[in-house]
Amino acid sequence: MSTRHYKHLYNGCRVPGKEYDHFQWNPPSPHVVLVHEGTWYKVDTCDHKGRIYSVNELVKITAELMKRDDKATGFMTKIASLTTDRRTEWFENRKKFFLDNKHNRKLLKIIETAQFVISIDGDLKWGSKTTEE
């Protein structure tokens, strides 16, 4: 079994084109993006000195995000649904709503340059007694 394709697992994203998508590989990033109930969070995976956070520190950060009351509402909870459009529509909507808007372009860059994006919605027990386990 070849593991050659694993190099594209982190720090990359598929960018829609008018006719063809392309893969955009990015340099290693210090952050991931977590999505919880439609709210997108940028989470650093290391401190300002470059020390990588421990699993326990990341679990604590994730648990805190899940308890927050500052959830997105309305249109903001539907942003991810834009990526389910047909390629041409997503290409056009990405340009119209993200690339042509300075603020949204910055947010899109955070998402596209993340190490990875993960949804922390739903039943997170995975057979354990608590989410933290």
Automatic annotation (TrEMBL):
The keyword Transferase applies. PANTHER family: CARNITINE O-ACYLTRANSFERASE, CHOLINE_CARNITINE ACYLTRANSFERASE DOMAIN-CONTAINING PROTEIN. It comes from Caenorhabditis japonica. One of its GO terms (cellular component) is mitochondrion. Residues 2-123 form the Choline/carnitine acyltransferase domain. SUPFAM superfamilies: CoA-dependent acyltransferases. InterPro entries: Carn_acyl_trans, Cho/carn_acyl_trans, Cho/carn_acyl_trans_2. Keywords: Acyltransferase, Transferase. It comes from the Eukaryota. GO terms for biological process: carnitine metabolic process; fatty acid metabolic process. This is Carn_acyltransf domain-containing protein.
